[in-house]
Specification:
Blueprint lengths: L2 H10 L10 E7 L6 H14 L4 E5 L7 H4 L8 H5 L5 H4 L1 E4 L2 E4 L13 H10 L8 E8 L3 H9 L2 E6 L3 H14 L5 E9 L2 H18 L5 E9 L2 H8 L4 H4 L4 H22 L6 H9 L4
Parallel strand pairs: 1-5, 1-6, 2-4, 2-5, 6-7, 7-8
Antiparallel strand pairs: 3-4
Helix pairs in contact: 2-12, 7-13, 8-9
Bound molecules: adenosine-5'-triphosphate and magnesium ion (MG).
Length: 289
């Protein structure tokens, strides 16, 4: 049996200690290159280390693919499963204890597979993933149709920005689009000098959003992440910051973001909010409303 198949088996057996239905968190941005993949990979790693069962999926092939980041090879992805060319067990790879990579698909091709038979076969295959506590999705940048589909289907949307004015403008545009489909949006301000700078940027976006989008929207700062040259180097060296450079400032900052997502999940459960789980997510994603 391949190690990948064993990875999936471990997930099937991972029912014990599961903390409820899967919470799907989409990490997105207006402008590209702001740190979505870095944040997704590290947040997923931290949540897994905290004991959650975490899946991470890339819905975009950007500068740094997740498979590159985790230093594994993923030659087939979710699209191959949808086409019937691979089983789920062949694409899911266990990266760490509690952490599974689900190689995603960047193109709009995924949306063509909304045929009921394909979807139902896919959902059968994806059954093992129901045991996940979190599915972190690294979406592409911008407001394309596929990305919006992912955001719509997710439980939580996190918009990432950096202090650069163009990124802030694009982040606001993204918030505006997402506000039409989600009442609550999380924000992360990455690559800041200090927390104060990040808070200021968030306050500006929140103020403009309040004035133009209106009172319905709840924009929440999930955290600020300090800039550090080691982070940029870590991607090239295929090192996970929160695992191998845990002492640098951004590692602690990312841990705080992960903890907030963890707290939020527990909170929603206490409130009795019904989490929809992964089956519903994929059904929504593939257009089975
Ligand atoms: N806090 C940080 N400090 C320093 N460098 C960072 C930080 N966060 C991310 N980077 C660097 O910025 C670059 C872009 O990050 P990343 O690839 O995660 O962004 P992205 O939003 O996923 O990009 P894309 O839109 O291309 O997918 C990488 O070289 C990464 O290492
Ligand atoms: Mg990326």
């Amino acid at each position: 049996m391949s190690t990948q198949a064993k990875g999936l088996e471990a997930l099937v057996e991972a029912q014990n200690g599961a903390k409820g239905a899967t919470r799907v968190v989409a990490i997105t941005s207006g402008k590209g290159g702001v740190g979505k993949s870095t944040i997704s990979a590290n947040v997923a790693y931290v949540l897994a280390r905290q004991g959650y069962k975490v899946g991470i999926m890339d819905a975009d092939i950007g500068l740094a693919n997740l498979d590159v980041m985790f230093n594994v090879r993923a030659d087939r992805n979710i699209l191959h499963v949808l086409k019937g060319e691979a089983g789920f067990d062949e694409i899911v790879t266990q990266i760490e204890p509690n952490l599974w990579l689900i190689p995603g698909e960047s193109g709009d091709e995924i949306l063509k597979f909304s045929d009921a038979t394909i979807v139902s076969r896919f959902l059968d295959e994806a059954q093992a993933l129901e045991n996940l506590d979190f599915l972190i999705i690294d979406t592409g940048a911008g407001i394309g149709d596929t990305i919006q589909m992912f955001l719509k289907a997710a439980d939580d949307v996190v918009v990432v920005t950096v202090p650069d004015p163009a990124a802030i403008t694009d982040a606001y545009a993204m918030v505006k689009v997402v506000s039409k489909i989600k009442p609550e949006i999380g924000m992360v301000v990455n690559q800041v000098k200090n927390a104060k700078e990040g808070q200021k940027i968030f306050d500006t976006i929140a103020r403009v959003a309040q004035g133009n989008i209106g009172g319905e929207l709840r924009l929440k700062l999930l955290g600020t992440i300090r800039s550090d040259a080691y982070v940029a180097r870590s991607v090239k060296q295929r090192v996970l910051v929160c695992k191998e450079l845990a002492n640098i400032a951004p590692a602690g900052d990312i841990e705080a973001v992960a903890s907030r997502l963890g707290d939020k999940k527990e909170h929603k459960m206490l409130e009795g909010q019904k989490e929809r789980g992964l089956g519903t997510f994929f059904k929504k994603l593939l257009g089975q409303f």
